[in-house]
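Journal club side-thread
Mid-discussion, someone asked how the predicted structure for our own chain would compare to the paper's figures. Pasting it here so we can look after the session.
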Amino acid sequence: MSMFRAKKLDIGCFINIKTIRDHSKRKAYAQFEPERQALRYIIRNTTLPQRTRAEAQLQLTQMHCYTRPTQIRGRCLLGGKGRGILRDFKMSRYNFRMQALAGNLPGVRKASW
């Protein structure tokens, strides 16, 4: 597990243990993604022998859980919150509202109709 910890904190946002862990998961995912895709291709290829496909399946299941895409969670850049995140701005709803009202987000206006 120590091999998946970030050696250098180049996160550029609010830092707590959850954001550090999420950053480590993102780096591990990016590093092992080609290997995972190759194994998944082997598993789905029905022209290959069953033994080869089973070995690929075993290798895929034995990979660390940080290499899975489902482990990555969108977090707020300003507060590190993990819920209520607007993907386009990578901010929580509250921080998005405060930044928009302050005029710090270009192209975002308060709605009025």
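Post-session note: The radius of gyration is 20 Å.
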